[in-house]
Design a protein that fits this description.
Blueprint lengths: L1 E5 L3 E2 L7 E5 L7 H15 L11 E5 L6 E5 L12 E5 L6 E3 L29 H15 L14 E2 L13 H13 L6 E4 L28 H8 L4 E4 L5 E3 L3 H5 L4 E2 L4 E4 L8
Parallel strand pairs: 8-9, 9-10
Antiparallel strand pairs: 1-6, 2-3, 3-4, 4-5, 6-7, 11-13, 12-13
Length: about 280
Amino acid sequence: MKTHKLNLSFLALVGAVWLWPVAGEAVAPTESEMAEAARWAAAKFKAATDPAKLGPGLYVLANNDPPFAFTYDGRPSADLLKWAAEFTRDQATGLRITAGQEKPRFKLHSGEEFRTPLMALQFWKGDWIRAQNLWRRWMLAHNLPRPGGKLPPVQMAACSSHQFGEMIQANTANQELFVDRYLEEKLPLDYWWMDAGWYKCDGSWPKTGTWEVDTNRFVGGLRPISDHAHAKRVKTIVWFEPERVHSGTWLAENHPDWILGGKDGGLLNLGNPAAG
């Protein structure tokens, strides 16, 4: 029995003997890397995995050592996932998954509580379209909030993350332009989402911890964009991740005592009243 760490966040086990499709967010390798991964899987494990016949999804080659994962969206291109999970496998075709909070090291004071990670595992038979529909039905029936006893209306939110590296290459002008173009194309935009990277981060959006608008790109802050959207009856959303603090940011430099990890960065200690 071997134990491996592999990046996964949601598993939906189905499919070939050696391949398990799963779902999650991704970053993109090249088209040739995807094709090579599929050909390699077919040859190494004698699985029926012609690249032209693969269905969309992330495939985990569980019997490789170490395990290998790639995604396929149904087109001749692919995304490679990097998620955190751990599983064990035997030398046959089995796959065992253990999920939970990894190595918790904390204590609860009187009146405190915490919630463990939540994971949904879906099994299905049939094609991937049926699997997606089953997932949507379950999500709607058992998870979506119902204010006033009714499902909320369908709403449309959009962003320019794919065009501008989240918000790294974004500025006031191109954000206003995108709002206008959605509306010109008669797309009923309810919310304009200003994604990660609107703050000072030295060109790398994961560098969170200086929660100040980068006024070199957004003169006057984000308010001009919001005002522009609101004038057209479009609301705005601003992305935040306050709990993660990168080294070299305002929080890490000025309040290392607030950080679980200190000046080197880590998690903001939300249990500290001064930090909260």
